[in-house]
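Possible regression after last week's pipeline update?

I re-ran a chain I had predicted before the update to compare outputs. Posting the input and the new output here so someone can diff against the archived version. Not blocking, just want to make sure nothing changed silently.
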Amino acid sequence: MTGKTLDEAIELIRAGQKQAGRQILVAFLQTHPHDERAWIWLAYAMDTPNERELALRQFLKANPKSQVARLALNALGEPPIQPSMPSPGETVEKTQPVRVRPAPPATSALTVGEEDQEEEPLPGSTPAPPPKKAARFWVILSVLMGFMMIVVVVFTFWLWTRGSLAIPGLAGPPFSSLPLGATPVAVSSLPPSATTTRQVTPTSTLPPAPWIISQLPKITASNAAQLGQLAFWQEPGQISLSPDWAKLAVFDGKVIQVWDLPRHLRLFTLLESAEMVTDLSYLPESQLLAITGQDQRIQIWDTASGKLTHTLRFDPDELNTVAEVVQNAYSKATYLSFSPGGKYIAGVTYGLASIWEAETTNHIQSFSLDRAGLETLNLEGPDAVVELVFSPDEERYAVRAIGKITVKDISTGLEVRSFLTPGALGVSFSPDGSLLIEAGNGYVALWDIQSGEEILYIKGVYNPEYEPNANAFSPDGKWLAVESEGLENKVEVQVWDLSSKQKKFAFPVFNARLYSLDFSPDGSLLAAGGSEGLARIWRMEDGAEIVQFNTVNSLFFSPGGQALAGLSGKDLALMGLSTNATRIGQTPTPTPTSTPE
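New output (post-update):
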C-alpha cells in the first residue's frame, strides 16, 4: 500500500500534476520521514526555487547524513548545512543556519524481497523497469493481505453487533443500550427547557472536605508539601472544570452531569442525543459550557441556570464539500477551541474550522482545505485532524494541517505566515504571541512569526503513542519547559531561558514519557506528570524539587494557583491545602536534581 501510494505520487508529478503529487507525498512523509526518494520528488514538485530550497532543508533535517540532499542544495547554489548540533548553552543567532531536526524513525522494516528492488531514479532520469519476478511477488502478497483484512473487518463488525466486543472510541453497537422497540430521542427535537432536569436534593456525594477554592492560600514552595486530596472522582470519562473550579462537568458516555464541587451536589443532568460527545469545555472566564459531538453541532449551556442558550452550526455547503471527499464516520467528530479571553469560539471538524464570536454567536470566518488537501488528510487516517489555536491577544489564529502551520489574521482572514512542518503534531503560541511552538514526536521547535525563522530546536523522545512531546511556557514567557531526551534514553524535563536560548535546568527523573507540564500562575513552580504514575514539582528559583506525588499521571495548577488537578489512572483527584484532608504528597530530600548550565 505504501509503495503504491508513493509510486502514484511520482506518476502524477511526471504527468505534470504536481499539486496532486505534492499532497500525497506530504501525507506519505508523515509516517516515512527518512524516505529520500519521497523527499527528492517533493522538492522537484515545488513551483519556485525558494520552495525547493525549503523542502530540501527539511529533507536534510530528517536525513542529516544524506549526500543526495547536500548535492541538491549545492545545485541550487546554497551552502551545505552542517549536521552537527550546537553545544549546550550556545546562543542561536538569526543569521545562523537552521538547526538540524531529526525526524521520527521510519516505521517500515526490510521485508522479504525488498533487497531485489532497485532504487527509484532521480527526477529527469530514465527509470529502469522493475524485475518481473518481484512484481509478481508483491501483487500476490497484496491480494492475500487485502483478503485477510476484509475477513478481519467483517468478523470484528459481527462481534461488535453481537455486543461481545468493545471498540475504543465507540460507545457500543448502534442502539444496543436501548430497550427492544425503543427509539432514540434527539436533543434537537426537544425545547431547551425539556433538556435539563433540576435536582432538588443531592443524588450522590463526593467525600466530605472543606474545599472552597477562593478561600485557599496560594500554593508556594513552602507549603506545596502540605497538599492533600480533597475530592476524588472515579473514572470521570470526559471532564471539564469551570474557570473558578467551582463546577465540574462530566460525560459518562450517556449523559452530561454538572456538579457543584464545594457543596458536593449534583446540580442537573443534560440530556444528550444518541450521537457520541467528542468534546466539552467551559468557555474562559464564564459559566458557559460548550458541548459538541458527531452531530457537528455546538451547544452552549449556561451552567448557572441549566438552560441551553445557543446552538452553533457549520455552513452546510462547507460540510457537503468535506463529505464529498471523506465519508468515514470519524470525519464527523468535532472539537472545540477558545481564545484566551473567551471572545471567540472555534469548532473544528474534519478538514474544516469555523470561528464565531462567543457573545453574539456571529460567524467570523472559516478555514477549509481544498479538495486535494482533503484527499491528503484522508490518506493520513482517522487520527488526522485540523488543529486551531488562538493567539493571546485574540487577533490571530494558527491552523495545523497536512504538514503545514498557517497563521491568519482574525479580522481580515489574510495569511500572516506559513511554515512547512511535516512532523508537527501540536502547535501553540508564546504568551506574547510573537513565537509559535511546534511539537512533534521526538522534538520541539520554536518559530519566530515575524521573520519566519526557526530560532530553537530541542531534541525530544519518541513514544509509542505517537503523541507530541509535552511542553509549556511560563506565564511571563521567560521559560520554556519541554519533555526531552536524557541519559540512557530516559526522559528528562528541560527548562530553557528564551532570552538567551540556553538550557537552564535539566531534571532527569522519568523512565517513560510525560503526560503534562504546567507552570504555576506566578511562574515560580513547575509541575510534571509522567506515565509511571509519578508527578513532581520544582522551584524555578534554584531548580530544587520540592514535592512529589505517587500514582498521579498528570498535574495542573488552577487559574488562581490555589489548587491542583491530577489524574490517577482514570480517576480525577482535586488537590488543595487542607489540614483535614488525607495527604498524598511526600517531601523528598531537599537536594536539587539539576545543575544550572
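Follow-up from reviewer: compared with the archived run. Confidence is low (pLDDT under 50) at residues 78-122, 124-128, 159-204, 587-597. Marking as no regression found.
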